[in-house]
Amino acid sequence: MNVVFWICAPLMVLGGLGLILFRKAVYSALSMALTMVCLAVLYASLDAPFLFAIQIIVYTGAVLMLFLFVLMLVGVDTPDSIVETIKGQRVLSALGALGLLGLMVFSIGGAITTPPTTMEGATVAAGGNVEGVAQLLFGRYVWVFELTSALLITAAVGAMIFAHAQRTKPKLGQKEQAEARMKAYASSGAHPGSLPNSGVFATSNSIATPALLPDGSIAEASVSSTLTERGAQLDSAALKQITADAFAKAERVGAEEDEEL
Amino acid sequence: MIEEYLYLSVILFVIGAIGVMIRRNALVAFMSVELMLNAANLALVAFAFQHGSFDGQVASFFVMVVAAAEVVVGLGIIVSIYKTRRSTSVDNANLLNQ
């Protein structure tokens, strides 16, 4: 138990320092993950295997991944300003932290005089760690347990409301779209039907190949404008040429055979 | 022997408090709050070990539940602030102050 503690404790302090000192938020999140995993190990060393599993699943698995997802959403490279907006904030917070540390260390120092009872007796009496926790959870603390379910539901609904984006314009249905198309046809003569599909050639049926009009020119509407802007549009004339060459060769061979006969 | 755990918990709590005070990025400040909650959890589990009862572990479990709910709502707030203000800095969220 002591060995485990002295391995994990420095790692946890390092992780905590990394959390507040790294300028990049992703590094902070990862050093937080280190602290969380070490904390789980300490729970195991304190005879709390249930909390060990919960710590890994809830904190390292769910909460930190949620943090990482949000970091991805808001952009990992949002800079953190170093400029102090409140004058002397660093000094004051250092003083405050020192005060807090002193206060808590003095209140803890010498507070524990007896050797620990350890969980052994309670675990044996309850028939296991999970059983012991469950007896309390569904016995003495069952009302608190019920309240947490209300809390979780409220939090889930709240998160959905936060994530919900209000429509600024009403959604266009099939009817409205058809009306808009007919209006455009009436005013500017735009074709109300579907757009022409992309060109299909013997060697290529990619959506990047434009279709050819009867006069041999390219039908602009047959290829997505995004592809055209990216320069991904293929050359229809060259593709057409391959087929034309093949036909010409076949016709020449046919003509030669005709002559031989 | 349990005292060492308590001292570690105090150190982590103070590190979390410093993070809340000096970091501007709302996400990092929020992670520091999580660190403080976890430090408290460690103290609770250590006390459970000291007294040989499961109450501390159950309390720690409840803290975890509350922390999970808090993370969901807090991250929702951060994302919605980011959507409207394009920033996660806590200094920029001063609409109620103006």
How would you characterize the overall build of this protein?
The complex is a heterodimer of chains A (261) and B (98). Chain A is mainly α and 261 residues long. Helices cover 66% and strands 0% of the residues of chain A. Chain A has ten helices and no strands. The longest helix of chain A is centred in the first third of the chain and has 26 residues, at 49-74. The model of chain A has no long low-confidence stretch (mean pLDDT 87). With 98 residues, chain B is mainly α. In chain B, helix 1 packs antiparallel against helix 2 (26-51) and helix 2 packs antiparallel against helix 3. The longest helix of chain B has 31 residues, at 55-85. The chains are: A mainly alpha (261), B mainly alpha (98). Chains A and B meet through helix 1, helix 2, helix 3, helix 4 and helix 5 of A and helix 1, helix 2 and helix 3 of B.
Oligomer: heterodimer
Going by helix content, strand content and strand pairing, the class of chain A is mainly alpha
Ranges of chain B with pLDDT <50 over ≥5 residues? none
| Total strand segments of chain B | 0
Helix content of chain A: 55-70%
Secondary-structure element sequence of chain A?
HHHHHHHHHH
The counted number of beta strands of chain A is 0
What sort of overall outline of chain B do the alpha carbons produce when their principal axes are compared? elongated
The largest β sheet of chain A comes out as: none
Cα-atom Rg of chain A, whole angstroms? Answer: 35 Å
Measure the end-to-end span of chain A: 100 Å
Q: Per the principal axes of the C-alpha atoms, what is the gross shape of chain A?
A: elongated
Question: Top keywords for this entry?
Answer:
heterodimer; A: 261 residues; mainly alpha; 10 helices; 0% strand; elongated; B: 98 residues; 3 helices
